Structure formats: structure tokens, C-alpha cells
Amino acid sequence: MMKTRNLTRRELLKSSAMAAGTLALTGVTVPFSQARGSDTIRVGVVGCGGRGSEAARDCVKSSPGVEIVALADAFGDRLDGLKKEFKVRSDRCFVGLDAYKEMMAPDDINLVILGTPPGFRPRQFAEAIDRGKNVFMEKPVAVCPAGIKMVIEASEKAAEKKLAVVAGTQRRHQPAYIETMKRIHDGAIGEIVSAQCYWNQGGLWVNKRQPNQSDVEWQLRNWLYFTWLSGDHIVEQHVHNIDVINWAFNALPESVQGLGGRQYRTGPEYGNIYDHFGVEFFYPNDVRTISMCRQIESATDNVSERVVGTKGVSDCCGIIEGENPWRYEGPNPNPYVQEHADLIKSIRDGSPLNEGQRIAESTLCAIMGRESAYSRQQFKRSWFTSRCTLSLLPPEGLTLSDSKPVDPVAVPGVYELPGLVQEEAGRKKRRA
Amino acid sequence: MALSEKNKRRPEKYAAVAAGAVAAAGSIGRTAYTQGSDKIKVGLLGCGGRGNGALGHCLQADPGVEVIALADLFENQVRRTRDTFAKNEKFKGRVNINDDHLFWGFDCHEKLARCEADLLLMATAPAFRGRQMLAAVKAGKHIFTEKPIATDPVGCRQVIEASKIAEQKGLAIVAGTQRRHEFSRVELMKRIHDGAIGKLVGGQCYWYGGGIWYRGYVQGMSELEWQCYNWYHFAWLSGDQICEQHIHNIDVMNWCFNGPPRKFTAVGGRGCRDYSKQAKEVCSKLNNGSEAGWEKYNGDIWDHIFAEFEYPNGARALSFSGHGPGTGRSGEKIVGTKGTSDCNSRISGENPWQYEGQSVNGQLQEHIDLIKSIRDGKPLNEGQQVADSTLTAIGGRIAAYTGRSFNWSWLLNASKLELVPKQENLRPGPGIFGPIATGRDQLT
Fold first, then answer.
1. Tens-place pLDDT, residues A104-135
2. Which of A259, A297, A313 sits opposite B304 (nearest CB)?
3. With left for phi above 0 and alpha for psi between -120 and 50, is residue A350 left, alpha or beta?
């Protein structure tokens, strides 16, 4: 059993090298976190709301020998459902904002599912990797550049420790997408010259503020609508589609310019997020793409992606038209289950998947779109990752009874993009 | 058409034929221009900044142009414009406007259409262009019209009708989408249409910039008159910025694709357009010192629209427009399977090309082309084209205002959206104010 908690980075490297060596030699003696073969995968769930619960069920469903053994949530009432469903022992159920730390402490847990609001993800993910856990984490994985940095560092650490990291961008585990992408990367539609992606839909659940709820409790229970918790809907939802476009290009956008606002969904119960974004991402070679997302009731829905090449067009999930027409006709397993099956297989095979960097990058792109829309500034990714000082990480020592006024809705011109100096804005303006 | 073909061979007969046709149709207007070195008598409708600019360019475009009439909603605008041009040495002897050729009021376009001008320049707020153009072509006038030419589908249909009448009568219509008259773009578009960048598969066009003027109250104006004076800020008058300004770039996209899009999807809103200080002043002056209800004077147009146009060949193009802070952008890009172009002077890709010819001022060239076409008896008619581009912009706006996607044929034929009051209901009095669009307004 490998104890990683108090190891320095150097020791860590050594120990994982050793572990790898052992693995190569015997193929049997592996760190516990890399449970192999028929070993039981013992799962702890952090964030037992709708998404966390579904992920727990899908995880169990995905593979034999998976047990949900520990739970953590900010709220006891949110945890009860899973506790009953999986008969989790009371002493393995932890409640509170820091409950995840206690839950992750025992060494017998070798996989954690992170399903809390994304604002908490970077710290929880870093903690999980520190503790030597394999991780399934819901998307998005951060809401600000500071969080992205943490996730990327933790992912690198996970790689060193040979821990598996899979993210809830389930399209990456959907054969129709995978097979289509193979063909796109093999040139079936030629060079990509244009692309679009959309998440236009109606509204989602909303929890109005109840009497006696503190600011923090209400915002947590209504987390979709606060940028520091959800990242806004372009990050929370549309990251799926942006991730697909990144996948198709096998590259990240170099710069971004967005528009957005809050035109229809303006009540206080909707916090401070926008209800629409329209973002242009500039991929290498000045290939410009459309990203559009909207949460407005009874408007026209469209959740999809489309890439256009010099030789054809594809919907990214099963159809290629043009010079090399093709249709995916294989099986369509439930991708929400498949992502767990792939994760667990990779753990058991000793070749852990690590999607941490990739999901951090796609999340980053969505955050760039949001910040560009909030500020109406065009900026480069290199600027954003190196010089934007935006951090929305939850305050250290946050408690559920804290008061935390709702941040104002971003008004372009008033909203300040941290780190953007005025002369830089001026220079870009002249160039454009 | 047949008439112009005939005319090409026997130009001397053409004017007479056209005159006969007009006379037979019972028009009281003078005919289309008679050729040669004759003067072209011009009337200006809309004496604001753009109208003054257009008149200046028209006078520069051809020495035979003579200004004989001016019309505007406001008397002082008409008089000021006459003074300005009468004083201008450059146009000496060519500005001959009698007092009885100064027209003002909501029906000034009707009066102007009855005068003996050959060519009318139209530069009022776009809301009224349809009825103005119909009156003009029925009276046998050639037209230069500023863009856009409407703010709703009904207005676009009026212009399409006017354009058909103009064609029958051999009248010219040129629109103020001046990019169509810039030599570099004309040469470039020939190449794009000839396949220099292959099949068109994508495109982008932009007009995002700083804000615009807001006009305060002027003593003596009724509320509706003030609203017309401050027209940009009301969608029924300007069509919103996507229509009023961004139409230039949208027109270039349509030019690339040789026609309008087939499908519209858009998002947008108003997040930072704020004239509350001025609006309160206007409110106070119009309402005996009360600022109650000042919000309506803030205007109802949005400050950003992000639209996707799907063209008949399946290509999807971005239209990105608005006013506000941040990074400004303006221009176009077209993407083909064999290359790309800035839609201005350059092609990159398999067939690189750079325009190196003469560069011209499109806002002057459009008048030169117009007058030449009249003199040559081969009248240009851009009515349908500018109606298509205006309707494209309006489609982007409607898609954003309603949150609904729809197709071109619905927009062109079935949309009942009519924002502009009937002519008989336009008189000094209360303004016409609607709520700011919500992003899921009713699709009309």
C-alpha cells in the first residue's frame, strides 16, 4: 500500500517510479490506488447532488467490483439519498464544506467522484491527487485561471503517481464521436477551415432563497447561477461542445472575442450569470469558429457541433459528408456509463487514463469565452494563462453560515478583467 | 431587360419612351433624366449628417448635378442645409433651391416627389424608406437611397415593389452600401465568384465599435418629432445597430454568396448601453419637469447581437455587431475550400491575389456610377439587393429578439412584423415606445 500523503514531490517521483518498476517486474504488486484485475474499487463520492448521484450509479453500473463506500457533501440532506441507496456506513458519511478531506483520508478508498459545484473542483481534485486517489471528476473542472492552474498541476502530479483521471466530458467516451474524430484526424474532411458549436436550450432548475438561509448556503443550493460556483453556463454546460471542437482541431484556440448578456433571465433567483453568449474562437491559422450558448425558455434549441473542412463536413458524432462520406453504424453504449467503464478498466489494466490536462484546457477555453464576453475584450490565450490574475477560488475557511453578497452581474465597461492593462487594450483596438 | 437593351442601341429614343410611359401611367412627376449634357435636377430627402454627405458626393460626382429641392422632418434642417450648400464655392451656380422647394413635416417626401427633380437622394431615418421610394418611383424619379432601407419586413417588401416599378420604368436605384462600388472589392468579388477560393464554406463579418450620438430635446419638438430626431435609439426607426450600421458587412457577405441566407439564429442583448443622464433631461423637458418614466427615452435598441447566417449552400457565417467598450472590430472574411479573403483586396490560399489598382472613395463612386448609368440610359437598380441585405440584418435582429430560428422564405413572405405606423398616423404628438426586446419576444 502506498502512502502518499506526506511525501514530498521528489519522494513522490521516486515512489511512483518504484511502483512502476514493481509493476513491470511482477505485474502484481501495485499501489493500492492502482487496484488491478478483480480488486474491488472502493469509491468515495464528493458532492451527492443530482450529478454526483448519477455518476455514482453509473460508476457502479459500469464495471463489476465497484462499491460506493464513502460520501461527502456540504449538506446532510443532499447526502441521504446515496447513503440509503448504497447503504453507506454513517461513519463514512461526512457533512460540511471540508468534509471531502475527511472522506478522502482513509487509504482504502481508491477512487473518488467529484461532483460538487465546479468552483470547488480545483482544491478537491488537488486534495484527491495528494491523497493518492484515482479521480472521476465532473466537468467543468474550474471557473477561473487560478483554478485551472491548480488542476493542471494536480494532473501532472497524477501522471507521476500513475493515478487515473477521467472527466465527465462523456462525448470523449462515445464511440460515434471517437470513430468520427479518428476519421477527421486522418483527413476525411481535409483541413478544417470552419467550425461551430452550440448549447442553446431552455432553463434549468432554480432554488429560490428560503428564509433563514445564509448567503453561502443559498448560493450553494442554487449554485448554477453564480459565476464563482458554476463558472456561468458557458463554462458549466457549453464546455462539452467547446471540448469537441478542441478535439476536432487537436489544438486550442489562440485568441477569443465574445459577446453576451443577461436579457431574459433577470430575476434575483438567477444570481449573476448571463443567459446568452456568442463567442468567436480563433484557432491556429486564423480559423475562426462560432460558439453560441443560451439558456432561455422556449427559444429554439440546438445542442451540437459541426466542423467544416476543405473536403467535407461533419457533425462530429457519426456523419461525414463530402468527398469521403461515412456514417457511424456501430453500437451506442450509454456514454455516462462508458466513461466510468473506461476509467476503471484503465485502473485495473495499470495504464491509467489521465484526462486532467485536456479537460482543464477545454474548461479554460470556456472561461476565456466568458471573460471576453464580460469585458468585451479580445485577448490571447497566452495572455490569459500567463497574466490574467483572475481568481474565483472559494475563500479559505469559507463556512456555510458566512455572508457573501452576490457579486454584481458583469457589465461590460464596468467589469474589469484582472490583469488587463489599459495600454494592452488600446494596442489590440488599434490592431483590430 | 428589353427596354434597356433597346436603349443601348438607340439611346436618343429612350428618354421619350420612358417619358411616354410615365405620362401614360398618369404620373405627375417629371420623367427620368433626359440625356447628354443636360442637367440632373436633384432633391434631397433627409437633411441630417448623412444627407448632407450624400448631397456633397452627388454634386462632386457630376458637374451636371443641380440641387433644386430639400426636404426634412424639420424646417431648420432644411434651411441650414440650403445655407451650407449655397455658401459652398465649390458648388457655385448648382444650388438653386427656391423657397417653395423647401419641404418639411411628416409628409415632406410626398411633396418632394411632386417637384420637378430627376433624382432624389434619400437619407432620412430608414423606417420611412419604403413609402418614400414608392412615392418616388411612381413619380418617375431616379433614386439614391441610403442604407438600410427599412426596419421591418413590410418595409423591405415596399422597397422590393418600388424596385420592380423602377425596373419597368427604367429608373435607377443605387443604395448607400458603398462597398459595392469600391473597385478593389468589385475586382475581388469577380475572382471569388469565379472560384478563386473554391467553394464558400464559411465567413465572418463584424461591426463592433464605440457608441453613437444621443440627441437631446430641442425646444418646440413634440415627443414623436424628438424621437425621430433621436432615431438611432429606437428599433422601429433605425432597425437597431445590426440593421443601421452592420448592414454594410452583411451586404458584403451576401455579395460573396450571391444572395441572402436561408436560415437565421442569433443571441444578443443590451448590457451596457446607457444614456440615463440625457434621457432624464429629455423626459423632464417633455413632461413639465418630471423625470418619471425616463427609461423610455433611453432608447430600446440593444448593444450586441451575435448572429449566425446559414447560406443556401450550407455554409454558416458569423455576424458580430454591437456598440460598447472593449475591442472594436469591423470588416469581413470569407472562407473557401481553396483559400480565404478579407473581402476587400486580398486572396490567400491556392490562388493568392492582391488588388493593386486605383482605390476610390466608395461614397463618391456610388454617385458617379449612378449618374453615369442614368446618362448612359442603363439605369442601375440595386433595390432588390439592398432590400435583401436589409432584410438579412432584420432577420438577425428578429432571431436575437425572439430567440427563435427561422428561414428566409418565412421572413420574406410570412412575417407580419410591422413597426412603422401608417403615414396617416404620423403627426406631431406622442412618441411611439415599445419595451426593450427580451430575447424571447413573440415571433410575428
1. 999 999 999 999 999 999 999 999 999 999 99
2. A259
3. left
**Minimum CA–CA partner of A424 in chain B:** B327
Are A275 and B327 within 8 A, CB to CB?
A: no
- From residue B104, give the alpha-carbon distance in Å to each of A116, A346, B51, B109, B274: 66, 80, 14, 8, 31
Cell 445590426 -> residue: B242
**Mutation to test the B interface, candidates A241, A277, A279, A300, most B Cβ within 10 Å:** A300
Q: Which three cell numbers stand for residue B168?
A: 419597368
- Per the DSSP assignment, residues forming a β-bridge with A288 are A282
Give the residue-averaged pLDDT of A387-416: 94
What DSSP letter does each residue of B92-156 carry, written as one string? Answer: TTSB---GGGEEESTTHHHHHHTSS-SEEEE-S-GGGHHHHHHHHHHTT-EEEE-S---SSHHHH
Q: List the single residue in B with minimal CA-CA distance to A279.
A: B306
Q: Quick one: pLDDT band at residue A7, thresholds 50, 70, 90?
A: very low
Three cell numbers written together for A205: 432548475
Other beta carbons less than 10 A from residue A185's beta carbon: 12
Tell me if B324 and A412 make a contact (CB, 8 A cut-off): yes
Compute CA A121 distance to the chain's CA centroid, rounded to the nearest angstrom. Answer: 8
Asked if A305 is an interface residue toward chain B (Cβ–Cβ < 8 A), one would say no
User: What's the CA gap between B390 and B340, in Å, rounded?
Assistant: 25
Give the A window 152-191 contacts with B, CB below 8 Å.
190
Residues of chain B with pLDDT under 50: 1-36
pLDDT digits (tens, 9 = 90+) for A185-209: 999 999 999 999 999 999 999 999 9
Which of B30-47 are b and which e, b meaning 16 or more Cβ less than 10 Å from the residue's Cβ?
Answer: bbbbbeeeebbbbbbbbb
The pLDDT tens digits of the residues spanning A151-188 come to: 999 999 999 999 999 999 999 999 999 999 999 999 99
Residues of B with CB under 8 A from a CB of A: 198, 201-202, 204, 208, 265-272, 302, 304-308, 314-316, 318, 320, 322, 324-329, 333, 335-338, 340, 402-405, 437-440
- The chain A residue lying nearest B309, using CA atoms, is A290
Secondary structure element (H or E) that encloses residue B9, with its range: helix B2-9
